[in-house]
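Message: Study each token:
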Amino acid sequence: MDNLSMLTDLYEFSMANGYRQTIDDEQGVFDIFFRKVPDSGSFVICAGLQQIVESLKDFHFSKQDVDYLRSLKLFKENFLDYLSDFHFDCQVSAIPEGTPVFSREPLLTIQGPLLQTQLFETLLLNIMNHQSLIATKARRITFAAGDKPIMEFGARRAQGPSSATFGARAAVIGGCASTSNVLAAEKFGIPAAGTMAHAWIEAFPDELTAFEKWADVYPDNASLLVDTYDVLKSGVPNAITVFTELKKNGHKPVGIRIDSGDITQLAKGARKMLDDAGFPDTKITASNALDEHVIQSLLNEGAPLDNFGVGEKLITSSTSPVLSGVYKLAAIVQNGKMIPKIKVSASREKLTLPGLKQVYRLYRPNTNQAFADIIALNDEVLDRPMDVVKANPIATERQQSIENYDAKPLQEKVMDGEKVQAELPDVFTIQKRSKQMLKEIPSATQRLVNPDEYPVYMTLKLAQLQENLVAEEKK
């Protein structure tokens, strides 16, 4: 990745400069978390950690950067000198990519010099919000498709080259099988997928000639776009003519793609024609403005589709285009002492969770079935039985007791300074792990419409700390 140190809102530089002049020796603890799940879902698939690590390892300021900041006439020279000789000196812990995570859980925690931790806010949120959003949308789409592969087709509709490339990565974490984006395919080891556009057919005197020429060039990759003129009257018959010739010459046709019209009826008609012609194994791909609801509808209607190409509604998460993750101060460290901090708002829903924390996933004993998560202070030992409080500050019947459970910590150490302490696996390893973790949470939580709420609790000690800080602020 390019050095992204200047991808920072101005107020972060202003605050960091202020810390340099006032409380330069203090450390800060910041959490990234979200309150609202896109598309009225119940969880988010977290993604983007690898790019965060790469960005933090390479975080530095060039002479040109420092000269520009100097030209703003806002900052002291001792701050600019600090930036000129910047060395990353923080500790990072995070929940691994691909994990289904829930509201208010700290996905990433960073601790280090307050000046440094303040500078990372925009960069870290930009990466994690975007990739987690697209991974979450991809999970919804692949969930709707079941065992039928999803090809990510969205580069041309993404909001810029970076969103296209890292969005494709996130889409694979969320379950996609391939991408049409060759840069993403090369960069992240993703299978590249794609056939032809309507322009190929239009460039030849007629559709049959276009198909024949394609088959001449790609005899073992003959997947034909059949909706340029008329799917059932010309597209499929012409495809069958070409497939028949390929078969005679020892090649196996791949299939057809339908990109417009009543896809259910066209796919049913095409499937019958292909089967009757002796091509029951050729695939039918659907594309054209698909999302999880359209795919689910097509399959419920019995459309005989084998895979899907999904573009703009995946790469932009157009039905819910924002994951509003936030970066909040949870504690400062003065003279080695951790001092918890809290944001108190007029809206209780916006209360933050103070202190250095860990997230645990709770399982039924001796099973892989999770039933709740709990947020605890980092130095707590979980009791059995354990009194807990719902993490949602506006929930009713918040307090209860949990007795029988196995607990698995979710956050793990990622960086200590520039030293990377966690594995950063390839996207398909992350995808495999994500699918396994999805099997562990209740199926009712995974529904696309009206999913059940998955309980997220905090320990009584953390809840009491939060309430004590709220009471202090109101004095």
